[in-house]
Amino acid sequence: MKLKPACKQFAMLLCLLTLSACVSSSNPDYRAMVQQEQAKIAQWRDLNGAQRITILGDLIRSDELDSLVDKGLAANPGLAQTLLTLKIRQAKYRQTKGARLPGVSAGFSALKEEDQDDVYTGTATVSWELDLWQKLADGSKAASKDVEEQQMLYQSARDTLAAEIMTGWLGLTSAKKNIAIEQKRIDVLEKTENYTRQRYGSGLGTLEDLDSARSATASARATLEEYKETLAQQQRALAILLGDPDVGITVPEYYTDVIVPLADLPEQTLQRRPDLKAAFLAIESAGLNADVAYKDLLPSINLEASLEDIASTPGSALLTSPVWSLLGQLTTPLFQGGQLKAQARIADLETAQAFEAYRETLYTAIQEIEDATGLERSLGKQQAHVETALAKAEDTLVQYQKSYRQGLSGMLDLLTVQTQTFDLAIQLNNLKYERLANRVTLGLALGIGAK
Q1: pLDDT confidence of 289, banded at 50, 70, 90?
Q2: Engineered SS bond to 263: which of 29, 44, 92, 296, CB 3.0-4.6 Å?
Q3: Please, what are the domains in the chain?
Q4: pTM for this one?
Q5: Cα(369)–Cα(361) distance, integer angstroms
Q6: Nearest-5° angle of CA 72, CA 77, CA 78?
């Protein structure tokens, strides 16, 4: 018994649908797996004095700093490259969308042979691949996810740059204060050196004491030059971040207070982080590309309609009375040495790889938040201890200066106390900078971004 044409078509379609079910991707539910990973995170511990903020600029109230951040976001060359990458992804997405639309082409040719009339041919062709398995749609969706991923990476780059400018600006204050402390150390050492020289000239002091005083002063001057160069390097580094090596930067004399950002619930915090969003979008894009790879194993249907006009003059060949034809083509891959199946397997593995990359990004985010919160507590305690130590050292220094002038203590004892006092002052200044800069780092880790 012979099947009717309609029955044959139905049977063929049924076979194709069955075939499509057999070659679908077997990737696990990565969305559920991501939710399971996030559910493992314990709630962050609250910090004393923490406040809720919406953008990084709220951490430090400074119009000058806001201006520098705006300048960096507009002119930094690295950020500009990331933006161009985003625009390239957007263009590629438009390219994939165009693949789903019919293609139109036109042609014109002329044939001239000896002892024969000239022949002119005009053609117009419309071709279209039926997206029977939604392969082209999946490819377009994957490109869309790539665009969204790059948007998140661009936002992450903006946030990171803003944080770097803020910490760089705080670093200038730290370097300037270290210079002031070291200059004060030199002033004290010079006074001690002059007094020791006077004592030596009057026969009350020794040459060893004078040499020790001179050595301490010279060492402090060397350290001062080091601090000055550190400040200059930090200014140059900040200028590069701003995208203008010749920019003039005013160095603040005193630290501007930095707010301690409030940590929300883990799920709220992680949803704000653009790097995590980008990592999840990479999983979705890889999954769609895997679907496309499996659908490459299925048959494809292409339709082509063409118009052709042959005439003896160019004007008559411009499709004035064309002959049209319609062609439908069904093609299916039979044997390509296992290349298509291997490509599908590769796509599955790349999706699994994207999930592991997400896990790595997630764990890094958790570590950054916990490290920053722990460091805030630790630096606060360290600062309190060093402040106490410095106050005691300053009192001791006053006593040793009196004792030395009275001849009750030696030069080495005085220099030791002086060194300890100013070293503690430098240590305290560095701790203040680290604590303020860490608050910016904490804000960034909590997903608080630039405006």
Answers
A1: confident
A2: 44
A3: 28-99+134-297+343-445 (1.20.1600.10), 102-130+298-332 (2.20.200.10)
A4: 0.83
A5: 12
A6: 95
